[in-house]
Amino acid sequence: MIGFGIAGFGGQAQASSAGMPEFKKPAAAFSWEGMFGKHDQAALKRGWQVFHDVCANCHSMKLVAYRNLADIGFTADEVKAFAAEKEVPDEPNDEGVVNNRPARPSDRIVPPFANDKAAAAANGGALPPDLSLMNKARPSGPYYVYSLMLGYEDAAPEGHPIPEGKFFNHYFPGNAISMPAVISDDIVAYADGTKATKEQVAYDIVTFLNWAAEPELDARKSMGVKVMVFLALLTALMYALKRQIWKDVH
């Protein structure tokens, strides 16, 4: 049972369906994998920077509030600054007029478009999905997203016609995806000086998306380890007690 539980902590990079290549694996395993794994705080901050500078131009993250960014190491002032970059509708005033106000840390991350129809119209009819739970939306989600980010080709291989306005990607079902390749070397300038290779950018955004989908992962694993240690000690004590009680009988 313990072995099964430990195995459940590990991720697997498997092909999502027949005909697709095996998912790509980062050079270093994702930090949260394994029984004792947890999210890398530096990668989370870099991932937020990628989302903020690149992904947030099209994608929303409606289930995450700005104040949640404090959990990945940002200060209260930094969180307030991130929120204040956007405006949200305020409560109606005495005349019933609704004005905009700067967003607050308690507000959810403001989406780039007013509604789904506006988002689709701005993206050739394709609605960019919300990224809040993206790492949980596919089997082997982190590997799928990582591979998708790195799975583009400048031109479709022979025998794989792609409709106009679509782009070839090895890992997207049908290989024709509406989103162009959005990451490249040095697409962002990391605040911590890390070299922003395509692989690093993909690793960091996947780490951030995994935290967004499972913000309780670190605490859950920490509690799980404590419970396993407690149960092991309890089992040893119960066995010793049993031996003590039955020592005169056997």
Keywords:
250 residues; mainly alpha; two-stranded antiparallel sheet; two-stranded antiparallel ribbon; 4 strands; disordered N terminus
Structure commentary:
The protein is mainly alpha-helical and 250 residues long. Helices cover 36% and strands 4% of the residues. It contains 7 helices and 4 strands. The chain has helices at residues 2-9, 41-53, 76-84, 116-121, 141-150, 198-213, 217-245, and strands at residues 87-89, 100-102, 167-168, 176-177. The strands form 2 sheets. Strands 1-2 form a two-stranded antiparallel ribbon. Helix 2 packs across helix 6 (198-213) and helix 5 runs antiparallel to helix 6. The longest helix has 29 residues, at 217-245. The radius of gyration is 23 Å and the shape is globular.
What is the residue-averaged pLDDT?
A: 90
Helix share of residues?
25-40%
Tell me about the largest β-sheet: 2 strands, antiparallel
* Widest sheet: strand ordering: 1-2
List the helices and strands in order. HHHEEHHEEHH
Based on Cα principal axes, name the global outline: globular
Radius of gyration: 23 Å
Structural class assignment: mainly alpha
| DSSP, total strands | 4
Q: What is the distance, rounded to the nearest whole angstrom, between the alpha carbons of the first and last residues?
A: 30 Å
Share in β-strands: under 5%
- Given as residue ranges, the uncertain stretches (5+ residues, pLDDT < 50) are 1-11
Number of helices: 7
- Which quaternary structure do these chains form? single chain
